[in-house]
Write a structure and sequence with these properties.
Length: about 80
């Protein structure tokens, strides 16, 4: 995982599997992997490189009959400069 931000900066496709409850937690989970001294730099890299993250999970159906898939998507907003 430590090479992923650098790979993304050079426009390489980076795929990873992380354990989070939803896609919005993905950036924090990535930063938490790094030592405290590297976290500010990692946050800066994440602010400029990733396009998004997809989260897939299963949630119980309201009637109790099955667990259909659920998805959430986190996408980086582009600045209007």
């Amino acid at each position: 995982m430590t090479r992923a931000p650098g790979g993304a900066e050079t426009r390489h496709l980076v795929l990873a599997t992380l354990h989070t409850n939803d896609a919005s937690q993905t950036p924090d989970r990535i930063v938490d992997v790094f030592p405290a001294g590297q976290q500010p730099q990692t946050r800066l890299q994440l602010a400029h490189t990733p396009v998004g993250a997809l989260n897939r999970t299963r949630i119980p159906r309201s009637g109790g009959a099955g667990w259909p898939p659920s998805r959430s998507w986190w996408a980086r907003r582009r600045s209007a400069t």
